[in-house]
Amino acid sequence: MNLEILTLSGKKAGTLELNPGVFGVEVRTDLLARAVTWQRDSHRAGLAFTKTRGEIDRTKKKVYGQKKTGGARHGAKSPSLFVGGGVTFGPRGRDFSSSLPKAVRALALKSALASKAQSQSLIIIDEATMTSHKTKDLAASLIKLGATNATFIVDAMEPNFDRASRNLPFIKVIPTAGANVMDILKREKLVLTKHAVELLTARLLTEKAEGRASKPTAAKKVAAKADAKEAAPKKAAAPKAAKTKKEA
């Protein structure tokens, strides 16, 4: 899969061949959904917290007389029956974070990159650098590039480019190490620098190779056990005790 390399102003600057093992995989929408849910769960604070009747700072003096009121008998103002009282079965703080296997995260990231490549929403630029830090200069360049609503994944955060992009509401710039599914899918376009493509490809292919190496097959396990058994030193047989005359 070949893609043109453009400059920030939209001019051609060569071509780049994308690795089909990263940008040409089958798009797994189920894994994309799992990855987005996992990311959103980690962003939830879970700070909702209510007090029970035992934690309410109110007087414990008897509200009114025990008899002759025609109402229920109460000994305090802290029950949930009264306004300002404790809350029954209310939220007590919660950790919403979940877990997602590393292999699933890597495959979901591949699917996100492949979805942008296959829908022709992927743009490759030579570098993300500017001589000026003004937002209007970057906005003019992005119109020519066709990336006014895009996520930029760059190999290095150049100060002028980073500063100029902060006031653009539909532009997000993240380093290669922070590439994630939610930011890629959130914008219409995905813009990668040439070096960022190489870094992402090397990272995802390396994780795949490490995952395969860390899971030995059943045949390898059996062979390893047999080798260990042969390598183990054999214990010498204990000498038999000599028979006494009585035993004989």
List the helices and strands and how they pair.
Blueprint: E1 2-6, E2 12-17, H1 20-23, H2 29-43, H3 102-118, E3 122-125, H4 135-145, E4 150-154, H5 159-165, E5 171-175, H6 181-186, E6 189-193, H7 194-213, H8 218-231
Parallel strand pairs: 1-3, 3-6, 4-5, 4-6
Antiparallel strand pairs: 1-2
Can you characterise this structure?
- The chain is of the alpha/beta class.
- It has a domain at 2-45 and 97-212: 3-Layer(aba) Sandwich (Ribosomal Protein L4, Chain: A).
- Helices cover 38% and strands 12% of the residues.
- The protein has helices at residues 20-23, 29-43, 102-118, 135-145, 159-165, 181-186, 194-213, 218-231; strands at residues 2-6, 12-17, 122-125, 150-154, 171-175, 189-193.
- β1 (2-6) and β2 form a beta hairpin.
- The mean pLDDT is 86.
* Percentage of β-strand residues: 5-15%
CATH superfamily of the domain at 2-45 and 97-212: Ribosomal protein L4/L1
Which fold name fills CATH's third level, the topology of the domain at 2-45 and 97-212?
Ribosomal Protein L4, Chain: A
**Helix proportion:** 25-40%
How many DSSP H or I helices? 8
- Sheet with most strands: strand arrangement: 2-1-3-6-4-5
Q: If classified by CATH, what would the architecture of the domain at 2-45 and 97-212 be?
A: 3-Layer(aba) Sandwich
State the shape: flat
